[in-house]
Automatic annotation (TrEMBL):
WD repeats lie at residues 227-260. Keywords: Cell projection, Cytoplasm, Cytoskeleton, Dynein, Microtubule, Motor protein, Repeat, WD repeat. This is DNAI1 protein. One of its GO terms (biological process) is outer dynein arm assembly. PROSITE patterns: WD_REPEATS_2, WD_REPEATS_REGION. SMART domains: WD40. The lineage of its organism: Eukaryota, Metazoa, Chordata, Craniata, Vertebrata. It holds the Pfam family WD40. The keyword Repeat applies. It comes from Centropus bengalensis. GO terms for molecular function: dynein heavy chain binding; dynein light chain binding. The gene is Dnai1.
């Protein structure tokens, strides 16, 4: 890297795969907050014609050949999240609209708690789940966002999941008038959300029509702000871990945009010339972020070195008809993991130019 003039590379380390997930796509990746080598991978399918069973696997960097834990599910998994204080608990959202909690302490492959049709499950796929701080009675709770436009809070009370609708997204001025005088209200489709690190009630919702809503848990009826962010679905949105005003979003319209939440227009716009599946901030620097595009490439940017171009754009997935879907930085090691549509997760090491710590 000394002679590369600020550019960097990704060194492939290990490929994690499992025989029974070859036909499934990697739909979610998450590092365990306690064991820094352990990560969970959710498998499902983004193709609504090919829905079937899902899997939840946990791998460790110490053993690429076989998963540590295997959980099966009836429906494809779409998202997952580890609890920060109880690292053995995972919240999971499914394609059929259910949510569940899996516990690593139980040796069965069934979830410990699950929602049901009578207890407020979503009517569309759940795209993201996120644990929140415990409520006043110290019960565990997490939020979920779904294409049905509902943001739901799930609380674990006496071994059952109790739901509370927080927000219902509606598309403005799209009440369809039918000839018979029927009125159909169309609902916005939530695709992702992000909770502020310091202000507990503040969060962002990304939608299928490309808008990003700034919301508060305290007001359920209206939004604090609306960003006309993208022309297509917002695939991911997340707050910068260091700078409390800044967030990043990516979309199928080929762009990654960086925002200040007090300003309506983006500060930076990057065109990656292909649909962007996922974007994440790095845990070690406020200026480094990475994105994956559907042409199989990973892109790593460092704004403190180059505000206009990626320091590294590298082909990660080589086979045709395969796409990269998700990327995550390891919280302590200079490693990223990237999932694809063939059920593989590849771990890559960041070269020194890509992991510079700020002064």
């Amino acid at each position: 890297d000394e002679f590369r003039n600020q550019r960097g590379t990704l060194l492939p380390l290990w490929n994690f795969q499992y025989d029974k997930t070859k036909k499934l796509a990697v739909t979610a990746i998450s590092w365990n907050p306690k064991y820094k080598d352990l990560f969970a991978v959710g498998y499902g399918s983004y193709d609504f014609m090919k829905q079937g069973q899902g899997r939840l696997l946990l791998f460790t960097l110490k053993n690429p050949s076989f998963p540590e834990y295997v959980f099966n599910s009836e429906s494809g998994i779409m998202c997952l999240d580890f609890h920060n204080d109880y690292p053995y608990l995972m919240a999971v959202g499914f394609y059929d609209g259910n949510v569940a909690i899996y516990s690593l302490k139980r040796r069965t492959s069934q979830p410990s708690y699950t929602s049901s049709g009578s207890s407020g499950k979503h009517s569309e796929p759940v795209w993201q789940v996120k644990w929140q701080n415990n409520d006043m009675c110290n019960n565990l709770n997490f939020f979920s966002v779904s294409s049905d436009g509902r943001i739901v809070s799930w609380t674990l009370i006496k071994n059952e999941l109790v739901h509370t609708d927080i927000i219902k997204l509606s598309v403005e001025a799209t009440t369809v008038q039918w000839p018979e005088g029927l009125q159909l209200q169309t609902f916005g489709c939530g695709t992702s959300f992000a909770f502020h690190k310091k202000i507990d009630s503040l969060f962002l919702i990304g939608t299928e029509e490309g808008k990003i809503y700034k919301c508060s848990k305290l007001y359920s009826s209206q939004f604090l702000d609306v960003f006309e962010a993208h022309h297509m679905a917002v695939d991911s949105v997340s707050w910068n871990p260091y700078h409390l005003k800044v967030f990043i979003s990516c979309s199928s319209d080929w762009t990654v945009k960086i925002w200040d939440h007090t300003i309506k227009t983006p500060m930076f716009v990057y065109d990656l010339s292909c649909a962007v599946g996922d974007v994440v901030w790095s845990p070690y620097s406020s200026t480094v972020f990475a994105a994956v595009t559907t042409d199989g490439k990973a892109h790593v940017f460092d704004l403190s070195i180059n505000k206009y171009e990626a320091l590294c754009t590298q082909l990660v997935v080589t086979k045709k008809k395969n796409k990269t879907t998700h990327i995550q930085f390891n919280p302590v090691y200079p490693i990223v993991i990237i999932g694809d549509e063939r059920g593989h997760v590849i771990s890559l090491k960041l070269s020194p130019n890509l992991r510079k710590m700020p002064k």
